[in-house]
Amino acid sequence: MCSRKYVWLPLIIFLLSACAAPAQTSSAPRTLTVMTHDSFAVSEPVIRAFEQANNVKVTILPSGDAGTALNKAILAKNNPIADVLYGVDNTFLSRALNEDIYQAYASPGLANIPNTFKLDPQNRALPVDYGDVCLNYDKAYFSSKNLAAPQSLEDLLKPEYKSLTVVENPATSSPGLAFLLATIGHFGEDKYLDYWRGLRTNDVRVVNDWNTAYYTEYTRAGGTRPIVVSYSSSPVFELIEAEQPKDGTPAPQLSEPPTAAVVSDGSCFRQIEFVGILKGTKNQDLAQKWIDFMLSPTFQEDMPLQMYVFPVNSGAKLNDTFTKYLINPQITAGVDPQAIADNREAWIQAWTEAVLR
Q1: How far is CA 311 from CA 120, 129, 177, 240, in A?
Q2: Which domains does the chain have, with CATH numbers?
Q3: In sequence order, what are the residues at sequence separation of 6 or more whose Cβ sits closer than 8 angstroms to the Cβ of residue 52?
Q4: CB within 8 A of 342, min separation 6: which ones?
Q5: CB-side exposure of 171: number of CA atoms within 13 Å?
Q6: Are 102 and 93 in contact, with CB atoms under 8 Å apart?
Q7: What is the 3-state secondary structure of the chain?
Q8: How far apart are CA 351 and CA 132, in angstroms?
Q9: Residue 90 has pLDDT above 50, yes or no
Q10: pLDDT at residue 129 above 90?
Q11: How confident is the model at residue 252 (pLDDT cuts 50, 70, 90)?
Q12: Residue 76: CB atoms within 10 Å
């Protein structure tokens, strides 16, 4: 997933009883190392609350994108460099489970999470958040050109959309891989490459990561491409961040998000991110408390304004602006997790041959 640091953060801290063990003030804090992808973010008051309640120092270990972080955890599984790994998503989950890097833990917090997010029945990898990877477009661009905004994946093949789209490389980007899977789920394994060849003919631009796509190539950032692969939540973030409002409400000059997401049936792919305790940890008790904490309303309600993700805890509440403006897809592109496990590398290689060579 990708993240932004936000000026306004909800500071209401509700500590779960599972995380509120009395601090052992007579001894020095222990250290808990949490390995994450580079997009992980949490507000200071939230992480300090956990530390103070458990007499612990939390060390966050950013380790590249989700795939790179997983590779590092696998290479070090006989001598783990962290206690917990967060950020493996459903595109890489099968690999993490097959490599047997996690130890099972049935957190009490699972009781508040819908079964649709629970993809590991052995509770080695526990769901933390989700986000829908979708096409986004710049409303002002299409209005100024008197051009209808795209409403489906197929629209991008039309001549009027030539040279308007930027996507991320699925070999190097988590959103890029998610969008590739959206096209596989939408068009089928036998036809998705035809779609991508059509995009190539229509001058799609491919970049290595989301930051380059969104903050360099996208017209909202001064680039030339008004269509970008991002998240269904991105338009709401654009509204909340406008003029850096202090209280999380829209800036006075904006009455609605300046961008929109394409959420037609089958055009988006839902990413689910997981956390798990790494085998070999010497801090199993703290690792369990940390996972309980990540599944609690305290952490779950902090995530939307820290990362491009949403809580899986059904009791977590969203900021009112999300409730008012967020439009999520009703039907996402479905790709079986085992099919992803069996074919991920082959699909990426076939895409590379069709689009980049």
Answers
A1: 18, 5, 22, 18
A2: 17-130+271-323 (3.40.190.10), 132-269+326-355 (3.40.190.10)
A3: 23
A4: none
A5: 13
A6: no
A7: CCECCCCCCCCCCCCCHHHCCCCCCCCCCEEEEEEECCCCCCCHHHHHHHHHHHCEEEEEEECCCHHHHHHHHHHCCCCCCCCEEEEEECCCHHHHHHCCCEECCCCHHHHHCCHHHCCCCCCCCEEEEEEEEEEEEEHHHHHHCCCCCCCCCHHHHCHHHCCCEEEECCCCCHHHHHHHHHHHHHHCCCCHHHHHHHHHHCCCEEECCHHHHHHHHEHHHCCCECEEEEECCHHHHHHHHCCCCCCCCCCCCCCCCCEEECCCCCCCEEEEEEEEEECCCCCHHHHHHHHHHHCCHHHHHHHHHCECCEECCCCCCCCHHHHHHCCCCCCCCCCCHHHHHHHHHHHHHHHHHHHCC
A8: 21
A9: yes
A10: yes
A11: low
A12: 15
Q: Kindly report the pTM of this predicted structure.
A: 0.80
Q: CA 288, 289, 292 angle in degrees (round to 5)?
A: 90
| Predicted pLDDT of residue 17 | 42
CB 35 within 8 A of CB 73: yes
- 267, 155 Cβ separation under 8 angstroms: no
Q: Average per-residue pLDDT in the chain?
A: 89
pLDDT at position 121, please?
Answer: 96
**Which tokens in the block code for residue 181?**
């899977």
Integer Rg of the chain from CA: 21
The confidence score (pLDDT) of residue 349 equals 97
Q: Are 337 and 94 in contact (CB under 8 A)?
A: yes
Q: What are the backbone angles phi and psi of residue 240, rounded to the nearest 5°?
A: -65, -35
Q: Which of 59, 60, 46, 87 is nearest to 309 (CA)?
A: 87
User: Are the C-beta atoms of 250 and 319 separated by less than 8 Å?
Assistant: no
Mean predicted confidence (pLDDT) in 262-283: 97
CB neighbours of residue 338 within 10 Å: 9
Average pLDDT of span 214-226: 97
